[in-house]
Amino acid sequence: MTRKKKKEREEKEKEKEREREKDIRAFELEKLNIDSEAKTAAEIEKTKAEAKKAEIAAEARKAEAAAKAEVQKAEDEKSRLEAEAAKLKLEAEAVKVRMDHEFRMKQIEVQNRNPNAGGDAGNAQEENPNNNGNGHRAAGMKALKLPPFNDEKDDLDAYLTRFERVCVAFEVRPEYRRLLKEIQRQ
To answer: Where a domain ends, among 68, 86, 113?
Structure first.
């Protein structure tokens, strides 16, 4: 029996040995699984960190692009305002030239209406000594119907404005306006 016991014992030992090897393999497999999970977790964390870094870089680029766009917008607005100012300046110069031209044309028209008005008062008196330097203008001045100034009713500023408008309408020269007042008093 000893052999049988020996054999049984050997089989038990072999069985134990197989179980130990099985346990060792299970342990190594578990260790590999844990290592694999740790590597996967590390890779996931690394990927997350890289994604976060890329996201931050994208936001920085976006903010930089927005800032550049804002600067460009400001420069465009500045250019537009400068162009508008230049345009207004040119328009103002054109209006000034047009007004100067119209003024010169009116002067020529007035001179053409009365040939004596273009010369000086001395020449007009030499041609017609009875003219008193006011010729055609005197007839026009008599035709003016401007009521006399009334201190009690009239406002002086309004009356003077009306007087000046009438003088302009009848093309009365400034030097003749005093004479006009004297004629109106008569």
So the answer is: 113
**Domain assignment present for 166:** yes
pLDDT at 80: 95
State pTM to two decimals.
Answer: 0.33
For the record, the structure tokens of 8 come out as 């049984």
89 and 141 share one domain: no
Helix (H) or strand (E) holding 121, with range, is helix 121-127
DSSP helix/strand/coil, 26: helix
Q: What is the sign of the dihedral through the CA atoms of 45, 47, 50 and 55? A: negative
Do 106 and 138 lie in one domain? The reply is no
Question: Average pLDDT of the chain?
Answer: 80
- Which tokens is 94 given? 């054109």
Report if residue 31 sits inside a domain: no
State residue 125's pLDDT score.
39
Domain hosting residue 101, numbered range: 36-113
Q: Report DSSP letters for 156-169, one per residue.
A: HHHHHHHHHHHHHH
The pair of three-digit structure tokens given for residue 92, joined into one six-digit string: 């103002």
